[in-house]
Amino acid sequence: DIQMTQSPSSLSASVGDKVTITCRASQSMSSYLNWYQQKPGKAPQLLIYAASSLQSGVPSRFSGSGSGADFTLTISSLQPEDFATYFCQQSYSMPYTFGQGTKVEIK
Amino acid sequence: QLQLQESGPGLVKPSETLSLTCTVSGGSISGSSYYWGWVRQPPGKGLEWIGDIDYTGSTDYNPSLKSRVTISVDTSKTQVSLRLTSVTAADTAVYYCARRDYVWGSYPLLYFFDYWGQGTLVTVSS
Q: Which of A59-68, A87-96, B31-40 has the lowest mean pLDDT?
């Protein structure tokens, strides 16, 4: 199985801050990487697919980059509704696996 | 707007079988290239892909659960079902129904989960 490791596990930030979350895969997987946002008590929502493609309806302050084994999710200017947990997920090979999550909290 | 809704018992006894149903509304399961399946999340923990199925009945399962999992589809009812046998406390989780779509033109196909149900908590306890 491909192991996905996110860092940091949690972070504190203020509204307006730029936030960067990284995801590292245990093997190279081209751009087969997706990002999700999950708010408490809610289902995950797709933000980014194929490492850098923005899902329809997702604000442009979210962006993704990377290929191979190292990927990044960036929020250019953190908004109050962005406080949530973010997961990366690889779709390069089955079984599909997720990172452990990064919780973004209010400073 | 496509909607997925999970249903089933919220409490299952150890060693018994967990059964859940996902009802899809606002769209069709038949004749599409999507996969429909299940992802679970133990309380306070991360996400685990369980498996999924397409409208023809072709399935993909997580090998870690494959021996205990069966996913089936009823296209006439636009429902997808999950059966997980011999459950233990480790199977306590929120179970999500999700649609798996792919990027057109990608090879191998690049899949992502773009629609999710609200999730249902299943507790395994006597």
A: B31-40
Residue B31 pLDDT greater than 80, yes or no: no
**Tokens (6 digits) for B62:** 């997580």
* Whether B47 and A89 lie within 8 Å, measured CB to CB: yes
**What is the chain B residue with the closest CA to A6?**
B46
Q: How far is A34 from chain B (nearest CA, A)?
A: 7
Counting DSSP H helices and E strands in chain A, the numbers are 0, 11
Please give the single-letter amino acid code of residue B121: L
Q: Strand runs (DSSP E) across chain B, as ranges?
A: 3-7, 11-12, 18-25, 35-41, 48-53, 59-61, 69-74, 79-84, 93-102, 111-116, 120-124
Q: What is the distance in angstroms between the CA of the first residue and the CA of the last residue of chain A?
A: 36
Q: What angle do CA A46, A52, A55 make, to 5 degrees?
A: 35
Contact A31 B49 (CB under 8 A): no
The angle formed by the CA atoms of residues B113, B92 and B122, to the nearest 5 degrees, is 75
pLDDT given for residue B64 in this prediction: 97
